[in-house]
């Protein structure tokens, strides 16, 4: 073979390798990660469906929606579902190798008499989100996976946020979505 033929073969092989790497990258990002995201969305959808069914059952049973049984719950409390605290993704501490993820949505309950609290929370969202992220990211994957730990985690989030607030206090924190992978 001539030297020109060898160079052409090397160029063809190099281009084949580059195209293969690019196709692999595209397949991985477009197919694999979309499947994972779709799987997470499917799980969330099932959880939401289950929650809706439970809420409907509770309404049929005559419950007020408040686990404490407070008949005046809707007149006394409100719940903030903020976009900033929906579908947050956090990397918890993981000692077993691959990166782990926590996708969480958080809602905050407060007393309606604290009328200025929602506006204060709205102003402090970046700071609050950073603090919540710090709390969640400092927990190990195993601890976050333990359902018995969740009330303590909710209290940690509530206490940290309440330290920042001056116009009222958060009475409860709800994890409306909690998916570990």
Report what the structure shows.
56% of the residues lie in helices and 16% in strands. It is built from six helices and four strands; from the N terminus they run ααβββααααβ. It is elongated and about 90 Å long.
Please specify the SSE layout and strand pairing.
Elements: H1 3-60, H2 73-76, E1 77-81, E2 88-90, E3 102-111, H3 117-123, H4 125-137, H5 141-145, H6 150-164, E4 170-180
Antiparallel strand pairs: 1-3, 2-3, 3-4
Helix pairs in contact: 4-6
Q: Give the overall silhouette.
A: elongated
Number of strands: 4
H-E string: HHEEEHHHHE
Structural Rg: 24 Å
How many separate helices?
6
Low-confidence stretches: none
Structural class: alpha+beta
The averaged pLDDT comes out at 81
Instruction: Give a short account of the largest sheet.
Output: 4 strands, antiparallel
State the distance separating the first and last CA atoms: 55 Å
Strand content is 15-25%
Task: Characterize this entry briefly.
The protein has 181 residues and is an alpha+beta fold.
Tag the structure with descriptive keywords.
single chain, 181 residues, alpha+beta, 4-stranded antiparallel sheet
